[in-house]
């Protein structure tokens, strides 16, 4: 019943929008025969289905709830991300949840609030009135130009202005356009170069002094923020910048997660030796850390130390026998190991 | 199964207040937040609330002469956590929440209401001086440094003799080292401008079809990556601001949502690809940006241009009858947020399963 009402409302909106008086069906030029269960079930054309759903939802052609449901089901199969299938729902309230769920959320919040309040108190003890910053106050060198909010129209030569047209030389004008294009191109290439440099922006070590003054709570906060940033860079494929962020996180406060993440980033950048070192650091903190062991295995594989890699992966499989990536890695590495073995194996020659 | 993995938005707590709430913000590194607004008699009020497992309790409040329109903690260090506010008569004030008799810093240069305020570099190191930017109805965008009294450190004003357009929103970005920094500003006529604070010039500008209600970079302290701009009449734009092409400009995509004004856009502090938009119909939409396979391609002249990815709607929920005009994620706890709407109520929201996205 609720759906019916919604659909009618939508239809009302469409009728209001349509000024020319043509129906959606006419606008989209979909043959009426297509509005058929058989056709819909065989259809592969998501775009057409979307339009057909829109037509039905408008209510202009009448009300066919079963056909619409059938279309929506079909569309969800061929294009699950379609905008037509977006449905709003009510925000869940306390009453909609089970008691255990509310209790677990509340307990989690309570726990977090307690922890964070402790760091908050710690920060309060370090309260100062001054702003500590090495960077100078921005100096306004020149009064920058005020914004011109009116749109300037390019000056055109009017058709009857013969003198102006006499002076007009198409060749020079064309040259001007070409020159401008070339300039733009040059500029674009330069900015691109700058951007490349940005990606390699290096770590500033001049804040080490500041680090020592950092309280525990601040160190945790900054370290976590850099870790988040690093993960984002990693996800978007900017491994260099991810590496920088993880390194910063570690400089502020060494922690297992950042070591693990940096190891993975080093693997992606094919710096296997560095990856190996990070894995060792991570394993120092937690000797049986699954991810660290797995990445150590990959790093060793990259360094072509297959036997050591296999040992490492065996450890992983012992802890978690169902780890698929470990098994794949083991398979890959074992091939190489067997090659080594095959070479040393004595050939069996049949003697008659 | 897929349905179960979808993030759910849960309203954990709700509280009705007796004044118009214009902005809400979490106090960094604490379980507290502030609500700023104004009473019906014209006085401005800031209230401080504390969150615990059971609910929210008011700890403190202070009243001043004019309605507070906007506030931010982003330009203040973790140790101080001073609140910068903009009010209806154009005052910029910075408050020490423990001693609110007189502001730590103040300026009255703006002649009309400060619509929007943003801070930078307070809680991250190696990205320049802490600064505050304000955008006002008088058409000016000003950048402030609390170490310099009375005079803004940068100013973007309309030409003399021209009526400035009402500036509705401002945001910092691209602040990845001590020199680089930009301010993005949105105006009521649909203009979006990107001011470069290093060169003090307009770096980019574009006119969208409708008034620009809110604007935010996905992160302030990285080389600028993505910019989301929300407008009146249910449309919002997502620009990839990594690569600029001389004729194509920035690549962008648009989405329609909420069937009314898109009031706010707020990126999740723990994951910049996820953001929430809030609408005039009282709905919340959670989005995720998926990058294309290749972000940059070269055109026939060898000039790089950006390629936009796509936006995926993770959740679309209806929360209230009235527009949700302020929203803030908690930096310290994944999925925790506070929002306020025109029905004068505060709500604590919890979004689950964000780490799985």
TrEMBL record, chain A:
Q: Which GO terms describe its cellular component?
A: cytoplasm
Tell me the compartments it is located in.
Cytoplasm
Q: Which UniProt keywords apply?
A: Cytoplasm, Repeat, TPR repeat
First-listed, main subcellular location of the protein, grouped into a coarse class:
cytoplasm
A Pfam family found in this protein is: TPR_1
User: InterPro entries this protein is in?
Assistant: CiliaryAsmbly_MitoImport, TPR-like_helical_dom_sf, TPR_rpt
Write down the Gene3D superfamilies for this protein, in alphabetical order: Tetratricopeptide repeat domain
In terms of superkingdom, the source organism counts as Eukaryota
Q: Where are the TPR repeats?
A: 223-256, 290-323
What is the protein named? Sperm-associated antigen 1
TrEMBL record, chain B:
Its principal location?
cytoplasm
Where in the cell is the protein located? Cytoplasm
Q: InterPro entries from the entry?
A: WD40/YVTN_repeat-like_dom_sf (IPR015943), WD40_repeat_dom_sf (IPR036322), WD40_rpt (IPR001680)
Instruction: Give the WD repeat ranges.
Output: 132-154
Alphabetized, the UniProt keywords read: Apoptosis, Cytoplasm, Repeat, WD repeat
Q: Name a single GO cellular component.
A: cytoplasm
Name its GO BP terms in alphabetical order.
apoptotic process
Key word Cytoplasm present: yes
Function comment: Key assembly factor specifically required for the stability of axonemal dynein heavy chains in cytoplasm.
PANTHER family found in the cross-reference section: MRNA EXPORT FACTOR AND BUB3
Q: What protein does this entry describe?
A: Dynein axonemal assembly factor 10
Organism name:
Hypothenemus hampei
